[in-house]
């Protein structure tokens, strides 16, 4: 196999001195919306570090540099555009995908040069004094004068770097553009040339020229007067579910007059009207701080300004005075109120960070803009954040509050760590991610409260423990961040929690200084210039933490930063009465080989991520064997006093003895009785009664007998109360202060201790752990009793109450008399219904906690299932009544999300958990059917309602699509997944389309070739980066389903097999073995390849996608990684070139000198002969014969009787060849047709058409197998004999086929189309008689777009003679003449002795098809239409040639340059003269 066509660039030699520093960069951009184009100019001030600097390497992608100047001199450059090279080239297929993958690899990982500028010879590196170079006077070293390099370029390919929204045809949104910044290098260089390596920082000056008004921006737009209006339909036009065909009204004049604005990183210096064009303005910004190129961003559009500084407290304004940072928000028209509602807290967040950490580094203003189609929630640039408009929500909606607030506060925190302070290397990126989120969480603790912060931390810890299995460590995770979105999410989660537990340990050790103090020192050191370019490393951060905490933290960083995994603790407590101690054994079982852990099978969500990690070299090994560090054990003793004990975990098995402090035991039975009596008497827990009475702090509701009876509450049985009396302590907590990311389970701790912990511990984490334990137990009346008390007690945090409602559904069982269902219904009626009535009250969502509970109770009821897998009819009717009688009148908040929750609940209660049919009685079945019909009607009603009155983010439609999918997969409704396709089409809102695609994938519709092709088409053609990114996630999930064998397949209802015998055959065992194999990564990859490698539709669709000019860099990486998983067997370094087979042409005589040509459906199977263009000589060389050695080749076997065709071409003298060597290259058409070009008058021969030496007949038969031609001097012209002779020698004549000279070989009919060398005299060609039409011989005229038919009389010749006679030359017999016009001689009658397989007439007409261009054909006029017969001998009859004779003759004496009529040559009969081009050496002299 040939070596690869592309090789990696050779690394530069360090001795060339190609090192320099970037002092400053200026950027000038001229942005045009219609058409989308950016004309840019950037100026870089470069300080050489060596005098030998001759090359300057710059990063540039998808740009088109037009001119580069260095110190006013034009410089040469080389440019390798990655965005042009990362797609499949035209003519290639999926077998060449690895070329694009290798190019990306060389650019990203190997640092291949992109734009290399060479210093002109006239530019010299001058040595200057230190002060001239901006250095101190006493600075040591050699300094050189800076160089100014100017690069002008054009950008019209917007796959990365910049995005235009609202300018596409049919897009109804306001036109705007924004930069697509990324935290990783490689994106900034798509917008302007720069040093985009993630390390080089410098000041920036940015100047943007842009349209003055929206009308100016759309002035050249095709729909400037007919684009749909966005303002007329309100700000939520994008939320429309179905496209509105009637909405084609253009922007009004008022809308066109809206001013366009530019918001950019840095400080605005001026915004002036362009002096040369009144329709354009120029805004200039400067950023004096050192920033990375990826932290320069801007937006352009008709944005409205919202001043968020107004939400700063009055006291803060007076205290901060002029040092207060202004906060400016910008949004598209109509969304100002949403911005105020969503981002009102940012001013206070900025003040908090400024006072707690360091001052703001980018002037006195912070800006943020909300744009459409952003592929992430927010991007961070210097003093400016670009956020997605999906974050905005009105004040009538509660649900997005927490997420939006966290994202926006984190965007502010990233100005300190992420933009001002950066990571030195990708291995240190976890510091930037974790520190910025830690800053945000500290402020959110003040904003939302401590309970919310602790509860959210507990949820995140549990999620990290669940996710951190076979994952890279935090430090190693940096190199995989761009592989999959799940990597970034995991790093954000784990890095935050690692810093949180480090903070808790430092605070506990020092008393006050934690990670917040470490971040303060980190920012202070960066401002002082301690870190080069403000880049911090892991070692720097470790050093700061050790100094702040006054302790060694090497082991901590080794476990949590460079190591992976989380500890799993098993605790075994026991009370030693003799020693009065609590003995506690703590074991770590995450790496214990004696403990069998059941690993979860590979899921469809994780397949693509794990496969990418494996492909990039990650091998999951054993997790960190033993975690060490201090752990807090908290024991609540019998008197209710908590005692904390710090245990040093230094091995995998630790045994400690904790002293017991209480000297006597309180009888809990007596205490409980006293508390109940005190509660009934109305005593309080203060004063003298406090010593004797201890109230339960929480959950002490329903103390009276009437309430207990009304709520059906239960109490502890006598045996449990007896055990409670004997316990020495109330409960034990492990890691009570959140110093570990772990899972801790306390064995042998009874349920009543967890109940005590739930009711008496104030910590929300302890309460949540208690409910988690109760959730692991089977449903019981007692559990439901304690949980309903928790649900109804408003003193609990709302997260605890909602979790209690969720767990309560497990106690709704038939054996518990549906106690859980009764409690949930009773609680809902008590909280949200009219007194004494099941009718719900009007909604009131002003209390967010109650609103969350109102949503949680129906969710819990929908989870209740009976023994048959069906929801109880009572629960179903309850949910249907809630959604039917929902009343939102008088509520200041929207109930869109509440209705969405009820729709989900209604669909969940219709599903059946168990497979198989359950026989129901007629009445029950009738009730079930009637209820199902009503429920589906209710779901459909809300779905249709959303199409007429759009809800916030189309929540009704999205919910209805998901509910319909659940019902289809549970066989409640018919399998009609094609209904989702109407919602997946372009024109609907992006979130609706994505939900439709998600449902299609989960329903297994990717097995349909049409759906698969449609999905990939949407993926490669949709203009929205957000939609493409999310659709790629859906596609990845679909691939994971196929790999793991989890594709949904609709099944017909099977017959009831209860109690019958099930026989497992070999097929069943094989399917089961395959399913088990797919639960591992290797087995899933093999299964995926087996299922998809022969899918032709997928392969062709991916080929088109990899040729797309819309997909971004990250999108291409995703598709290439997938190709590498499935189609790696197609990789090849060769390319199959497909040529179009030529067709025959037909010609029709229309009369009056007119002919019509058309292509036929028949293909030409034989190749044409080889000719070269004639050369006009200065003089004619005398004829000479050049002897050539010929190797004898045995003749081919005799053929059957052939039809002899002859056509004699008479040529005139041709000039001799020149001394120049023959050209080896021809045009593509010439190479395909093996024909030289023919023009009316022969011009001088170009280099590409010069003749080359002719090969022998054997070489001509080999056609293109010879790699290089054998060039020989042109031979002299020879005169061939009049009769054919034995092939003793052949005259070497130039032909265009570049093959070496080899001995001649007798030709066979199958090789007749190949190029043949000339012979002394033309010989007849035998054609098999079994062929009705002779094989076509290609015309010497190129570009066969026309066909003419020429009837030539033939005669039959003997087969033996034609088989033993060598084939004549492809060129006619050369003969000197005054004009270079070959003469067509008439055919001679065939001899009577010719043997034929079939009886035929002596004068039989044959049609020879000739490929000609129509413009080269002449019109002829016949004289009576009579055919001319020449009386010639058989020996003078030439070989059959493609004729140029048309069906008619030209009128008069008119000549065409190719064909002419000459009269009076032979008698009074006109003769047809055909002009043909030949090389000078190919024209023999006719005797």
Q: Helical residue percent?
A: 25-40%
Q: Report on the biggest sheet.
A: 8 strands, mixed
Low-pLDDT residue intervals, each spanning 5 or more residues: 1-5, 10-17, 221-249, 666-670, 684-695, 1184-1194, 1196-1410, 1416-1456, 1483-1487
Work out the helix count: 41
Strand segment count: 40
| Overall mean pLDDT | 78
**Lateral arrangement of strands in the main beta sheet:** 5-4-10-2-1-13-16-15
Rg result = 43 Å
Distance between the termini: 53 Å
Shape: globular
Structural class: alpha+beta
Percent of residues in beta strands: 15-25%
> What is the quaternary state of this protein?
single chain
General description of the model:
This protein has 1487 residues and is of the alpha+beta class. Among the domains are: 310-420, Orthogonal Bundle (Neutral Protease, domain 2); 1145-1487, no CATH class. The protein has 41 helices and 40 strands. The chain has an eight-stranded mixed β-sheet. The protein has a five-stranded mixed β-sheet with strand order 18-19-20-22-21, with helices on one face. A hairpin with a 4-residue loop joins strand 1 and strand 2. Helix 23 runs parallel beside helix 25, helix 26 (848-862) packs parallel to helix 28 (896-910) and helix 33 packs antiparallel against helix 34 (1025-1044). The longest helix is centred in the middle third of the chain and has 27 residues, at 922-948.
């Amino acid at each position: 196999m040939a070596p690869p066509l592309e090789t990696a660039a050779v690394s530069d030699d360090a001795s060339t001195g190609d090192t320099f520093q970037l002092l400053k960069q200026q950027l000038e951009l001229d942005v045009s919306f219609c058409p989308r184009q950016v004309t840019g100019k950037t100026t870089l001030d470069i300080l050489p570090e060596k005098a030998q600097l001759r090359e300057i390497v710059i990063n540039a992608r998808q740009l088109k540099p037009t001119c580069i100047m260095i110190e006013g001199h034009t410089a040469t450059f080389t440019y390798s555009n990655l965005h042009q090279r990362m797609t499949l080239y035209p003519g290639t297929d999926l077998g060449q995908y690895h070329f694009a993958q290798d190019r990306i690899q060389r650019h990203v990982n190997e640092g291949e040069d992109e734009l290399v500028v060479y210093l002109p010879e006239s530019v010299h590196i001058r040595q200057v004094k230190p002060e001239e170079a901006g250095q101190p006077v006493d600075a040591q070293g050699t300094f050189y004068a800076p160089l100014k390099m100017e690069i002008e370029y054009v950008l019209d390919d917007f796959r990365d770097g910049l995005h235009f929204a609202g300018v596409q045809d049919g897009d109804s949104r306001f036109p705007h553009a924004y930069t697509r910044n990324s935290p990783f290098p490689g994106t900034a260089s798509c917008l302007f040339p720069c040093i985009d390596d993630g390390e080089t920082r410098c000041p920036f000056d940015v100047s943007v020229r842009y349209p003055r008004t929206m009308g100016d921006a759309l002035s050249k737009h095709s729909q400037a007067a007919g684009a749909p209006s966005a303002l007329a339909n309100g700000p939520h036009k994008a939320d429309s579910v179905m496209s509105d065909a009637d909405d084609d009204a253009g922007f009004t004049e008022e809308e066109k007059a809206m001013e366009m604005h530019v918001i950019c990183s840095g400080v605005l210096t001026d915004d002036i009207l362009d002096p040369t064009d009144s329709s354009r303005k120029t805004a200039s910004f400067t950023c004096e701080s050192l920033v990375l190129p990826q932290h320069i961003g801007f937006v352009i559009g008709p944005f409205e300004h919202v001043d968020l500084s107004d939400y700063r407290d009055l006291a803060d304004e007076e205290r901060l005075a002029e040092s207060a940072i202004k906060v400016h928000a910008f949004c598209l028209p109509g969304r100002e109120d949403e911005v105020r509602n969503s981002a009102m807290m940012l001013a206070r967040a900025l003040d908090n960070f400024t006072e707690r950490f360091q001052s703001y580094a980018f002037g006195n203003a912070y800006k943020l803009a909300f744009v459409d189609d952003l592929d992430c929630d927010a991007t961070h640039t210097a003093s400016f954040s670009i956020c997605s408009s999906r974050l905005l929500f009105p004040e009538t909606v509660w649900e997005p509050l927490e997420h939006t607030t966290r994202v926006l506060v984190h965007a502010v925190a990233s100005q300190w760590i992420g933009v001002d302070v950066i990571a030195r290397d990708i291995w240190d990126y976890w510091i930037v991610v974790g520190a910025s989120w830690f800053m945000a969480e500290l402020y959110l603790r003040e904003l939302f409260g401590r309970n919310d912060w602790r509860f959210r931390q507990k949820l995140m810890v549990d999620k990290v423990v669940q996710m951190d299995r076979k994952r890279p460590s935090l430090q190693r995770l940096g190199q995989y961040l761009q592989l999959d979105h799940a990597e970034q999410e995991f790093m954000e989660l784990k890095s935050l929690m690692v810093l949180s537990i480090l903070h808790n340990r430092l605070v506990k050790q020092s008393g006050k200084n934690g990670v917040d103090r470490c971040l303060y020192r980190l920012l202070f050191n960066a401002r002082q210039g301690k870190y080069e370019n403000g880049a911090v490393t892991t070692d720097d951060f470790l050093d700061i933490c050790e100094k702040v905490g006054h302790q060694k933290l090497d082991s901590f960083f080794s476990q949590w930063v460079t190591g992976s995994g989380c500890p799993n603790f098993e605790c075994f407590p026991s009370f030693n009465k003799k020693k009065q101690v609590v003995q506690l054994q703590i074991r770590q079982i995450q790496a214990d080989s004696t403990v069998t852990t059941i690993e979860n099978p590979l899921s469809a969500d994780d397949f693509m991520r794990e496969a990418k990690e494996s492909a990039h070299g990650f091998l999951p090994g054993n997790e960190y064997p033993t975690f060490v560090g201090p752990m807090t054990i908290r024991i609540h003793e019998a008197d209710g006093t908590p005692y904390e004990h710090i245990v040093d975990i230094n091995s995998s098995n630790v045994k400690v003895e904790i002293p017991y402090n209480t000297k006597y035991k309180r009888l809990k039975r007596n205490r409980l009785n006293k508390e109940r009596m005190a509660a009934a008497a109305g005593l309080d827990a203060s004063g003298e009664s406090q010593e004797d009475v201890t109230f339960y702090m929480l959950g002490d509701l329903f103390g009276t007998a009437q309430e207990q009876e009304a709520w059906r509450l239960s109490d502890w049985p006598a045996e449990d109360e007896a055990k409670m009396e004997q316990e020495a302590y109330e409960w034990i907590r492990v890691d009570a202060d959140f110093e570990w990311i772990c899972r801790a389970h306390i064995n042998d701790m009874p349920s009543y201790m967890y109940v005590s912990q739930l009711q008496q511990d104030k910590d929300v984490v302890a309460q949540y752990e208690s409910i988690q334990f109760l959730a692991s137990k089977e449903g019981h009346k007692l559990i439901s009793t304690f949980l309903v008390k928790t649900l109804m007690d408003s003193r609990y945090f709302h997260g605890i109450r909602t979790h209690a409602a969720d767990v309560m559904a497990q106690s709704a069982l038939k054996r518990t008399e549906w106690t859980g269902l009764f409690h949930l219904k009773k609680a809902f009626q008590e909280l949200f219904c009219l007194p004494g009535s099941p009718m719900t009250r009007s909604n009131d969502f002003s209390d967010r906690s109650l609103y969350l509970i109102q949503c949680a109770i129906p969710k819990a009821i929908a989870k209740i299932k009976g023994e048959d897998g069906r929801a109880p009819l009572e629960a179903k009717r309850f949910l249907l009544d809630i959604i039917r009688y929902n009343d939102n009148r008088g509520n200041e908040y929207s109930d869109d999300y509440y209705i969405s929750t009820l729709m989900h609940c209604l669909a969940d209660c219709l599903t059946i958990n168990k497979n198989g049919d359950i026989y129901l009685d007629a009445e029950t079945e009738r009730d079930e059917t009637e209820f199902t019909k009503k429920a589906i009607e209710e779901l459909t009603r809300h779905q249709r309602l959303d199409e007429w009155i759009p809800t916030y983010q189309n929540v009704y439609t999205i919910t209805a699509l998901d509910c319909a999918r659940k019902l289809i997969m549970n066989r409640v409704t018919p399998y009609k997944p094609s209904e989702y396709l109407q919602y997946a089409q372009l024109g609907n809102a992006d979130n609706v389309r994505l939900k439709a695609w998600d449902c299609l994938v989960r329903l297994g519709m990717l097995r349909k070739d049409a759906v698969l092709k449609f999905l990939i088409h949407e993926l490669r053609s949709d203009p929205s980066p957000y939609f493409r990114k999310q659709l790629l996630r859906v596609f990845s999930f679909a691939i994971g389903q196929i790999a793991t064998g989890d594709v949904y397949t609709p099944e017909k209802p099977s017959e009831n097999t209860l109690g019958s015998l099930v026989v497992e055959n070999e097929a069943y065992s094989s399917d089961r073995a395959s399913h088990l194999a797919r639960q591992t990564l290797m087995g899933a990859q093999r299964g995926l390849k087996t299922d998809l490698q022969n899918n032709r539709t997928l392969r062709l669709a991916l080929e088109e996608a990899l040729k797309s000019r819309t997909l971004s860099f990250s999108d291409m990486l995703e598709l290439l990684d997938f190709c590498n998983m499935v189609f790696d067997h197609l990789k090849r370094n060769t390319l199959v070139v497909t040529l179009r087979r030529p067709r025959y042409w037909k010609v029709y005589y229309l009369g009056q000198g007119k002919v019509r040509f058309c292509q036929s459906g028949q293909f030409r199977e034989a190749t044409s002969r080889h000719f070269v263009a004639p050369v006009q000589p200065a003089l004619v060389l005398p004829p000479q014969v050049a002897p050539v050695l010929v190797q004898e080749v045995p003749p081919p076997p005799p053929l059957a009787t052939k039809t002899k065709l002859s056509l004699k071409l008479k040529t005139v003298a041709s000039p001799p060849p020149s001394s120049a060597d023959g050209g080896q290259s021809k045009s593509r058409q010439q190479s395909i047709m093996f024909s030289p070009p023919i023009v009316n008058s022969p011009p001088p021969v170009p280099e590409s058409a010069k003749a080359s030496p002719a090969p022998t007949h054997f070489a001509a038969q080999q056609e293109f197998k010879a790699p290089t031609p054998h060039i020989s001097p042109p031979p002299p012209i020879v005169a061939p004999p009049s009769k054919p002779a034995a092939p003793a020698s052949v005259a070497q004549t130039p032909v265009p086929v570049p093959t070496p000279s080899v001995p001649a070989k007798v030709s066979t009919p199958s090789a007749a189309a190949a190029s043949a060398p000339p012979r002394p005299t033309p010989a007849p060609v035998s054609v098999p008689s079994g062929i009705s039409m002779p094989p076509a011989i290609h015309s010497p005229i190129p570009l066969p777009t026309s066909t003419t038919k020429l009837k030539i009389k033939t005669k039959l010749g003997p087969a033996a003679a034609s088989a033993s006679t060598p084939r004549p030359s492809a060129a006619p017999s050369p003969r000197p003449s005054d004009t270079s016009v070959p003469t067509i001689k008439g055919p001679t009658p065939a001899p009577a002795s010719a043997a034929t397989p079939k009886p035929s007439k002596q004068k039989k007409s044959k049609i020879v098809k000739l490929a000609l261009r129509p413009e080269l054909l002449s019109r002829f006029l016949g004289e009576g239409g009579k055919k001319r017969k020449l009386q010639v001998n058989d020996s003078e009859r030439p070989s059959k040639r493609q004729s140029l004779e048309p069906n008619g003759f030209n009128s008069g004496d008119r000549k065409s340059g190719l064909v002419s009529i000459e009269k009076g040559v032979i008698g009074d009969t006109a003769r047809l003269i055909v002009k043909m081009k030949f090389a000078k050496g190919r024209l023999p002299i006719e005797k």
